[in-house]
Each structure stands twice: as C-alpha cells, then as structure tokens.
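Quick one, probably user error.
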C-alpha cells in the first residue's frame, strides 16, 4: 500500500488528513502546532518529527500551507522533504501560483521526486465534510499514485494535464471570481438597502433568482454576512495574497485585469487596517462604512429568510 504524509494541519489540512486516516490510509503528519498533530495521532496517524522525517516515511507527501515561501522551505529547504529517502511524489495543495509551482517541480525533479500542484476549492466546510474540489496538474503516473488520497477528501477531482502549474492557474481563476463576486454582490445589496429594501428581503429574493443566485449571494452574503457570523473560514490576507498572485500571473500572459485590480484594493485596505487575520467576508465592512448601511437581518421585522 502507498504510504502518505501530510504537512500543514491548519483549518483545512487537519480535516483532509483526518479523512486519509479514516479511509484507512497509512499517514504520517507534521505541523508546528503540536496540538494539531496530537489530534491526528489520537485517531491513528503517525507522528513526524519534521518535514524531512515525513518524507522518510511517506511515498506521497502532501502539504497545505499558507504561503509560497513556506511551501518552498518545506519542500527544498534545510530539513525539507527533498532530502528524504522514501518520498517519490510531492503534492502541493496550497495556493502558490504557477510560477512557484514550475520552479518547485524543477527543483524536486533533481531529487527524483515528481510534483503535483493540486489546489483546492470548497473552503473549511468542504474540507470538513470531505467534499472539496481539487484541481490537479503534473505527471499522470504521479496523479494515479496520489489519487486514493484525493478521493478521501474530495467530491470533485479534475486532472488538467501534465504541465506543472495548470492547477494553480485554475485556482487563481476560482479565487478571482470568488473575491470579485463578494465585493460586487455586497455593493449591489447595499444599494438596495439604501433605497429602502431590507437586506434580508433582498437576499431572500436573490437566492431564488436564476440570474443572481450563486456562491457570493447564497453562501457568503445570505449565510455568513446577513447573520453577522463572518465565518466562511478563509482569511482576508490569504484572499489578498491570491489576488496579488493572480494579477502578477495575468500580466505575465497578457490577460487584462481591470476589475480584479480594483477588487484587490478592498482587500489591500482591509489588511493595511489590521484585518488580515479576519474572515474574508468582513471585507464588506468597508462598503458598509462608505454606504452608511449594513447587510444584516433587521430585528423584529417581518422580512423572511
């Protein structure tokens, strides 16, 4: 049986690793958060002492980490996975961008390690339920080797081809749409609120509208913002990072980014104001302040959700 390793037991990674263990796959885990490792060890995972140690015990090493710098350090830095003897396939579930992915794939190839970029969509809820979407590119044989792990935590697996970075490009496309749709939808709802329609009524109608309903309206605004829970599970600074990556990669291939460049400024401002660790849905606060109105359920009103 193929052995697996998982590095990065954060908001999503801990659930993904849990699904591997529950599927009966042999998994060695590592994270700087010892408590997160302890939780996985209690249900049957093996404890790794370092990133390299994980690679000494696992043929397929999977990582889910917050920034490209950390991914590269874990992969090829001192005490990184590349120096290990067992690892044959390195799978990056982080959002690092295609440029970093191609550089990393070339570096790992020098150590005889095949690289897959396999970024994710679906958020924390998808990771928890095992219903993530995973967008994979890299060698087909490496994909076949890693696929049993993908099947443990993903409801949709898209293999995009052998060229490194295609998965990363599609993930940036996904997050560009998510971030832009959130800002645009919030702006539109606030227009309706300022004109005299309760936010709950607006979103109730939009959630039934064939032309307006969708992720931004139904999941982000109607569920996370209207309730003032703001708990989608994706940090503001990470969305900003992804938009910055997208703009850079788009410029490299000559794709226009007029709208996305404006949207990024909302996340830039939020991070500059100290909200980087906040949930990304709190970006609507900036629009609410400008509008002098909020997207929230009116207490004691007759509006129905």
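Nope, works fine. Designed sequence:
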């Amino acid at each position: 049986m193929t052995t697996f390793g998982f590095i990065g037991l954060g908001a999503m990674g801990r659930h993904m690793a849990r699904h591997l263990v529950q599927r009966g796959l042999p998994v060695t885990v590592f994270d700087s958060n010892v408590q997160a490792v302890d939780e996985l060890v209690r249900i049957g995972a093996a404890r790794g002492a370092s990133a390299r140690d994980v690679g000494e015990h696992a043929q397929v090493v999977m990582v889910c980490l917050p920034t490209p710098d950390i991914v590269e350090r874990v992969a090829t830095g001192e005490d990184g996975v590349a120096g290990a003897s067992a690892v044959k396939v390195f799978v990056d579930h982080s959002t690092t961008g295609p440029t970093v992915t191609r550089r990393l794939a070339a570096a790992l190839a020098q150590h005889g390690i095949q690289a897959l970029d396999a970024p994710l969509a679906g958020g924390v809820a998808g990771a928890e339920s095992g219903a993530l979407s995973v967008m994979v590119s890299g060698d087909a044989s490496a994909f076949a080797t890693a696929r049993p792990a993908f099947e443990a935590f993903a409801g949709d697996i898209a293999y995009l081809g052998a060229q490194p970075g295609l998965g990363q490009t599609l993930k940036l496309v996904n997050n560009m749409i998510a971030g832009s749709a959130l800002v645009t939808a919030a702006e539109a709802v606030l227009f309706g609120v300022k004109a005299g329609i309760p936010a709950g009524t607006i979103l109730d109608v939009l959630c039934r509208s064939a032309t307006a309903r969708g992720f931004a309206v139904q999941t982000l605004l109607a569920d996370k913002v209207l309730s003032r829970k703001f708990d989608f599970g994706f940090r503001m600074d990470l969305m900003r990072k992804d938009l910055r990556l997208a703009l850079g990669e788009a410029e490299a291939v000559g794709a226009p980014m007029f709208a996305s460049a404006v949207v990024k400024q909302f996340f830039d401002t939020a991070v500059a104001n100290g909200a980087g660790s906040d949930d990304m849905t709190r970006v609507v606060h900036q629009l609410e302040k400008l509008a002098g109105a909020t997207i929230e359920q009116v207490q004691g009103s007759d509006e129905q959700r």
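The chain has a mean pLDDT of 96.
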